[in-house]
Amino acid sequence: MRVQTLGQFIIEKQNDFPYAKGELSRLLRDIGIAAKIVNREVSKAGLAEILGETGEINVQGENVKKLDVFANDQFIAALKAGGEVCAIASEENEDIIPIDNEVSKTAKYVIAMDPLDGSSNIDVNVSVGTIFSIYRRVSLSGPGTIEDFMQQGTEQVAAGYIIYGSSCMLVYTTGRGVNGFTLDPSIGEFCLSNPDIKTPQDGSMYSLNEGNYLHFPDGVKKYVKYCQEEDKATNRPYSSRYIGSGVADIHRNLLKGGVYIYPTTTKSPNGKLRLLYECNPLAFIIEQAGGKATDGKKRIMEKGMHELHQRTPLFIGSTQMVEKAMEFMLKHETVSS
Description:
- By secondary structure, the chain is of the alpha+beta class.
- The chain is built from eight helices and 15 strands.
- The radius of gyration is 20 Å and the shape is globular.
- The protein starts with 5 loop residues before the first helix and ends with a helix.
């Protein structure tokens, strides 16, 4: 059986890209390189004592940093060095990071990312991940601007995530299906392990933080009760599976079938997840795998962007399960009105 590396796969699929084939290929490879470095540090987090700021000085004379800050720095460094993006938006930075150098002035892309989603789970050895979203710039030249990021998710050129767990896996789409690559540590390469991923249209798992149940909208409360009811015809009750690391929960549901819900609450009336660098890329991936992603009413990728760290509720996963949850949301609205 032929082993196909991420680099080989990207080169072979270059003709699928409608424009800037070489640049996008190099950008995806840059992301893969940074992911290997972050995975190395995640896998030894306890040994390296980088779960948080320790106040100690390392051999380079630097303060030991939190792992999420380390991941942010690694991806920014790789993307700047690659020269394929003119600006970066990160969960770790309040403003965009425009890249002002000779190479990046003519770069065709911008990238938004959550460098280490679920980082609070590192110290209990739970899977964490990186989420990224790539857009074609709308500014004409020079460093990127905030307007380059104020695009709907439908304008994404590529999106993906890296999950750092029992194995390190990179999953991405360029709008032509979803493919997964697992890092083979013996050769230091991501190898194609899950070609053309298709998520089940239905499932038997629901994922949400039931600790916030009292603060959920009535439609979500009713859907949770529906999931817990016994009904052989629909294979209920469903299993409740919630890791608390978004990438890990959505990755499991992508492969096994299920729905992930992060609704509005009385404490977070606009939702809590970020549209630009969490929900849009995850929605792109799920839709390309045959699933669905909404805010409970509207398609996630059609939501307008108004601010960099804009928040939104999220209903994502197997199409039939997302649609059923949306039915409960609609029923509640109808009753209320």
